[in-house]
Amino acid sequence: MKFKLTLDAKPSNHTIAYGDKLMLIGSCFTENIGAKFKTHLFELSENPYGILFNPVSVINTLTEIMDRRVYQANDLFQHNELWHSWNHHSRFSAIEQKDALENINTSIVAAHDFLKSANRLVITLGSAWLYHLTDEAPLGQGQVVANNHKGPSNWFYKSLMQPNTLLESLQNLVARLHAFNPNLHTTCTISPVRHLREGLIENNRSKAVLIQAVHELVNSSKQVDYFPSYEYIIDDLRDYRFYAEDLVHPNFAASGYVWDKLVETYMDHKTQTIMKQVAELQLAMSHKPFFTGSAEHQKFLQSCIQKTEALLDKHPALSLQDHLAFFKAGISK
Question: Can you give the residue ranges of every domain in the chain?
């Protein structure tokens, strides 16, 4: 008897390999997947404005990165002793205004240079609900915000983005991205994180808007494909045991399942082989021996050194120098 439906991974023509440069942008689920890319030592730029949930903020961020916008003092506001930007996550906020500006502008310059030479952009959209600033908010002129920075409720009003409006905005973004970097391919995905602040029904309305617009975008552009992270959680796993205690965020097992599907979809056999070797060395670095000077541990370190050097010989672009130094530092003199 069959108790569940399974969504099989379909190998993509747009593969991801070592040597590729990937920018990930979007919701908190982006950071879960980004951590796995980092663990496997892919070259990565992740959320240069911080976590973003709504499409307007994602589009605004990428546009400002391409334009290499320079933020000025009058772009920031002060609230709860900190200086903030309405376009950025609170991790860019600071007690001193100059520090917040430096954090923001340094990130934009780095992201601009990275995006110019990247060949993969992964956009994860979280919610089609938009929060706008009222006239009572600092700098408020009805614009959409990326983060509320714990401002009072009378600073905001919300609206639901419509599929046609979103589609047009995404199409314009893709055209702009292609002009900026013709080698860039974009992968879109929908975050499986539920936005319960809006309510279950409102969350589903929001996800429906995102899904409709993104699939229309994929159908209209060869530069964009879709990865079904939302469907892997909602339709394939389809069980609250794959969520954290808040019943909102996918747990470690669920994120690992989606990662495995992503690997099956975008990484060929050669890349997967290298990933396994990298993961083995990462695990070796976290190994805590009881007796560091024992012959057994010294033999283990020598083996790790040989494996690291062999992998570097074949793939010199891999960031394994720290691993090699770590293993060599443990060798008894």
Answer: 21-267, 277-329
Q: What's the 3-state SS for the chain?
A: CCCCCCCCCCCCCCCCCECEEEEEEECHHHHHHHHHHHHCCCEEEECCCCCCCCHHHHHHHHHHHHHCCCCCHHHCEEECCEEECCCCCHHHCECCHHHHHHHHHHHHHHHHHHHHHCCEEEEEECCCEEEEECCCCCCCCCCECCCCCCCCHHHEEEEECCHHHHHHHHHHHHHHHHHHCCCCEEEEEECCCCCCCCCHHHHHHHHHHHHHHHHHHHHHCCCEEECCHHHHHHHHHCCHHHECCCCCCECHHHHHHHHHHHHHHHCCHHHHHHHHHHHHHHHHHCCCCCCCCCHHHHHHHHHHHHHHHHHHHHCCCCCCHHHHHHHHHCCCC
Q: Tell me which fold the domain 21-267 belongs to.
A: Rossmann fold (3.40.50)
pLDDT of the chain along its 333 residues, tens only? 777 888 999 999 999 999 999 999 998 878 889 999 999 999 999 999 999 999 999 999 999 999 999 999 999 999 999 999 999 999 999 999 999 999 999 999 999 999 999 999 999 999 999 999 999 999 999 999 999 999 999 999 999 999 999 999 999 999 999 999 999 999 999 999 988 888 899 999 999 999 999 999 999 999 999 999 999 999 999 888 998 888 888 899 999 999 999 999 999 999 999 999 999 999 988 878 777 778 888 888 899 999 999 999 999 989 999 999 988 888 876
